[in-house]
Amino acid sequence: MRILVTGGAGFIGSHLVRRLLGHDHVVVNFDALRYSGNPDNLSDVADHARYAFVQADICDAGAVAQALKEHRVEAVINCAAETHVDRSILDPSVFAKTDVVGTGILLEEARKAGIQRYLQVSTDEVYGSVELGHSREEDLLAPRSPYAASKAGGDLLTLSYWATYRLPVLVTRGSNTYGPNQYPEKFIPLFVTNAIEDQPLPLYGDGRNRRDWLSVFDHCAAIEYVLAHGEPGTVYNVGGGNERENRAVAETLLRYLQKPGSLIRFVQDRPGHDRRYAVDCDRLRRLGWEPTVEFEEGLRATVEWYRTHEAWWRKIKSGEFRAYYEQMYQQRLAKGTACAS
Ligand code: TYD
Question: What is the DSSP code string of 126-191?
Answer without folding.
Answer: GG---SSS-B-TTSPP---SHHHHHHHHHHHHHHHHHHHH---EEEEEE--EE-TT--TTSHHHHH
